[in-house]
Amino acid sequence: MVESEQDVALEDTDRIEGRSALVNNTNATLALASAVRSTLGPRGSDKMLVDENGEIVVTNDGVTVLETAKVEHPTANLLIATSSAQDRIARDGTTTSVLLTAELLRNALELSRIGVHPTIIINGYQIAAEESLSQLDEIARDASDEDLMAATATTMAGKIDTTLAETMTGLALEAARALENEEGGDDLERIRIKRLKMTGGVAADSEIIHGLMLRKQRLDFTTDGHSNGGKIAIIDGGLENRELELDAQIEIRSTGVLSGFQERKSAKLAEQVASLSSLGVDLICVRDGIADEATPLLKEAGITAYRRFEQEDLERLSILTNAKMVRDVNRISADDVGDYSKRSADKIDDAWHVRIDGGRGAMTALLRGTTPIMREEVNRAFDDALGVAFRLVREPKVLPGGGGTQTHLARHLRSFATTQKGREQLAIEGFADALEVIPRVLAENAGLDPIDEILALSAAQAEHGAWYGLDAMSGEKSDMGDSGIQDPLFVARQALTGATEAAITVLRIDDVLWAHVEPKTPDWSNQIDDD
Asked: What pTM was estimated for this model as a whole?
């Protein structure tokens, strides 16, 4: 038999085709989902993550577990990307999106075994997802202040203890409401609020400062460290003479030339300081360095200076004080100067900190903990709570937690499936079954029988409505609105959309090619003609 050109081209490649590709991809997805399955819900377990250097992270945050894991399988990496997108867009629901994706693929594999083509499954999943999204809007409620608090607290259920969760919830909502009317993108809360981890005190001592606090010490300790208000200039560069960028040598044949050269440098710095002083500036923050010759000039002008700022901190300071970042001090104008209401310098935890208050949309979260591991966990919990709270105040819609939303969608889709023609009915029923993975895992992690709990919850919803769910702490089925167990609408919507898109992406794959040859730079020498 003559070997085909295609076989020759793929002789250094492993190939998995058709249903075998679906089996391989589904198994990889299920294996990854099992790594975070036990973290779901208030009764979820923690994971200890240890890196190559022996650094330890203890968390039950799904996206943290997945992003820390070293995964080589491409489909597993697709699942991690879905989880990361959920975290980026909604700040919560990462474990839910992973479990739902894996369950959709498991059910798709079962459907393929009985002869349902992947194209039919994809079509059915798309129909089911569209119907589910419309149902989310129907059962969602407008959130009151108590609902906002409950939904934000639900975000942290199981991540930290209940008392600390209340503290983080209050801080997150305080910060979110301060940013409610601010303009900016979806990452506004991460840009405007600086997280500062402090070693002193316990986690419950964490607080929000409506100002900017930084680990900085002033350039000259003889200048004023405290002020009840003043004007500030922000320099996006340095207060120093520029160095020559050319590799050149200057030959000086007399001491007078050298002294004149130094005098001109000093005169230029004096001119810059005088320009700042004429505008009434008493505080400057510089991204780069400040020349030693400028230090006495600044002191004489009554200007306190700080240097070596991160770009993000300068941007927050600009928002806080309404000062514009200026690169050339000689061109600074009165319109570029900002104002602050208060400034203080204190030594905290053996490090100098400066606090600047301005009354505008930039804040600092002082996050405390007794150990580095605790401080990291508090930081992650606050970050999740703040992300959810910030989006909640902009879209105040909530759904029942405790698996109530998914149970209602599953019940609705099973009835809805009978209205469809063809084998799409089977795919819609598979989608409904996949949704029940959430109440099932919640029950498992709470030590309850998942089958009994799903049946009981379905019966409770048939009698009392869609807002009945499972209280994993007590094991009771109750109204989630009354129990304070609520999920934001945008979290459930993104989890449903992201999981469906990820599952459909995998279902479209019917051929997986694994190359044996390591990638290398091709040799083009035989294609270059000699002149």
From this structure: 0.82
